[in-house]
UniProtKB/TrEMBL annotation, chain A:
UniProt pathway: Lipid metabolism; fatty acid beta-oxidation
The UniProt record lists the keyword Ligase: yes
Membrane topology: Peripheral membrane protein
EC id: 6.2.1.3
Chief site of localization: membrane
Protein name: Long-chain-fatty-acid--CoA ligase
Source taxonomy: Bacteria, Pseudomonadati, Pseudomonadota, Alphaproteobacteria, Caulobacterales
AMP-dependent synthetase/ligase domain segment(s): 106-304
Subcellular location: Membrane
TrEMBL record, chain B:
Entry keyword set: Phosphopantetheine, Phosphoprotein
Protein name: Acyl carrier protein
Source species: Asticcacaulis machinosus
InterPro entries tied to this protein: ACP-like_sf, PP-bd_ACP, Ppantetheine_attach_site
Residues annotated as domain Carrier: 1-81
The keyword Protease appears for this protein: no
Length: 430, 81
């Protein structure tokens, strides 16, 4: 059976809270009706939304679904010229970012697909295609327990990212409330969680480590705590358990390509080794050369550009996550590629190196992850300068350039000036 | 480093961070909450603060895992040996 967001006209059930403002299902339905009519009238087949406003994103999802249009969901950090390039490349006829920005585009065949993107701040973002039906099916299947129906979900993830969209769809599908802060700071999250009596919070381990520093657990009425985006470590799981002894704690493993692969509820890091034989929900897991490989029923429909997780010939998805079998548990050790995971946000070193190399006096640069107790890792850079170059001036120029072009989590937090950078036999730095 | 010196180093780094972000630097006391409303410090800034303190003081109290603290004063105490 075809499922949709099922927003009914005039329904005064609250759907999105932003700061202290509230939007009902009927409000969003009315706005989506208007948008859907405009899309149909103009003959637009592809729409792009670029906003952190969850009410607008849900309006766009509902409108495009009913108008049969494809929807591209873009992060607000993607620069305008790249948005223009994406629109031209994919025949997008409408950009929503608070206003309706109509563009001339040749209509292309559309099937209510949802396209999500990587951050792409220093290159063209990668675009992954999902069918709304499969996203909704996943959101529907993700809620098995009655207390989760009608939950009040605090949205801590980026509203335009895969995890953010999953939480938004889950709240919408199950008659719940999606709680978003006026300001995305720890006290902002704590304030709205208390104000709207949040029952469900899903966030990265980094989010939780920071949230516990501002939150008084007794002031919250949480029923479900979920950790995702990074491997959940035992100390963080233990701290959450101590702060919220009566709340269900779950950690998940998900990827843009495969969606949520598994969810663990026993408060222990990793997952049970028995799942290598039989994992829940039709998922299959195996370890190949130390790497986790996965197979799920709800694989995404395909990438428009190169995938970050290659699909193998036998239908398995190869991840870059190194795992270790330890007794009856499989533990996730971390990623064995160059990606740096800063509090759940992925940073690719190459574009950051390229940006540093553009600065005056810089002859070589290596960007890498430095372990950090708060965010798991921070971006660090080793930089070689020309003889006689002014270190202080170079530091300033590099930081200014990075802060202008990159999201905050990608900016090197530690800059070291060195005489040379070691190059391995394979001509790889570091 | 003495407790006073560590405290001064923390205040200096926080002030510099806020200044870099173009935010006003309020009066910081030992009771100021690091991630509280008064300061515009986020997780990333906190991660950077901890990393800079390790460089400056030469040891990392979080080496064996994160330790909970709320205020600037509590953070200072973690570095006193």
């Amino acid at each position: 059976m075809r499922i949709g967001l099922d927003l009914k006209p005039g329904d005064d059930t609250a759907l999105v809270a932003r700061g202290e403002a509230l939007f009902t299902r009927g409000d969003i339905r009315a706005r989506a009706d208007d948008l859907s009519a405009a899309i149909t009238e103009r003959g637009v087949s592809r729409v792009l939304v670029r906003s952190d406003d969850s009410a607008l994103i849900l309006e766009a999802i509902d409108a495009c679904d009913r108008a049969g249009a494809d929807l591209f969901i873009a992060h607000t950090t993607i620069a305008q010229d790249r948005i223009d390039a994406i629109c031209a490349e994919h025949g997008i006829g409408l950009v929503l970012n608070g206003e309706r920005d109509w563009r001339s585009a040749t209509p292309s065949p559309s099937e209510s697909r949802i396209y999500m993107m990587t951050s792409g701040t220093t290159g063209m973002p990668k675009v992954a295609a999902h069918s709304l039906q499969s996203l909704l099916a996943k959101a529907k299947a993700g809620v098995k327990r009655r207390p989760d129906q009608g939950g009040r979900w605090v949205l801590t993830y980026q509203p335009t990212g895969f995890a953010g969209i999953q939480v938004s769809l889950t709240a919408a599908l199950w008659g719940g409330l999606l709680i978003t802060p006026a300001e995305r700071t720890m006290s902002g999250f704590y304030h709205v969680s208390r104000h709207w009596n949040g029952t469900h919070i899903s966030g990265t381990p980094t989010f939780w480590r920071s949230f516990l520093m501002v939150a008084d657990p007794a002031q919250l009425s949480l029923q479900q705590i979920t950790l995702g985006g990074e491997a959940a470590d035992q100390p963080t799981l233990d701290r959450i358990r101590k702060a919220f002894p009566d709340t269900r704690v779950t950690h998940t493993y998900a990827s843009t390509e495969a969606g949520v692969v598994y969810a663990v509820h026993d408060g222990l890091e990793g997952f049970p080794a028995a799942w290598l034989e039989a994992a829940p929900s039709g998922v299959a897991l195996r370890i190949k050369d130390g790497f986790l490989q996965i197979k799920t029923p709800n694989m995404m429909s395909g990438y428009l550009s190169a995938a970050s997780q290659p699909l193998l010939d036998d239908g398995w998805l190869a991840t870059a996550d190194l795992v270790e079998l330890a007794g009856d548990r499989v533990k996730v050790l971390g990623r064995d590629d160059n990606t740096i995971n800063v509090g759940g946000s992925k940073v690719y070193p190459l574009p950051v190196e390229a940006l540093i190399l553009k600065q005056d006096g810089v002859i070589e640069a290596r960007v890498y992850g430095q372990p950090n107790p708060v965010t798991g890792a921070l971006v660090a850079a080793d930089v070689v300068l020309e003889d006689g170059a002014d270190e202080k001036a170079a530091r300033k120029a590099i930081l200014i350039a990075c802060r202008e072009a990159l999201p905050a989590y990608s900016v090197p937090r530690s800059l070291n000036f060195v005489d040379k950078i070691a190059v391995s036999a394979a001509n790889k730095k570091g | 480093m003495t407790e006073d010196q560590i405290y001064a180093a923390i205040v200096e780094i926080i002030s510099q961070t806020l200044d870099d972000k173009g935010l006003d630097v309020p009066e910081i006391t030992p009771e100021t909450e690091v991630l509280g409303d008064e300061l515009g410090i986020d997780s990333l800034d906190l991660a950077t603060l901890v990393s800079e303190l390790e460089k400056k003081i030469g040891f990392d109290p979080f080496a064996k895992g994160f330790i909970e603290f709320k205020t600037v004063g509590e953070l200072t105490k973690l570095y006193v040996r």
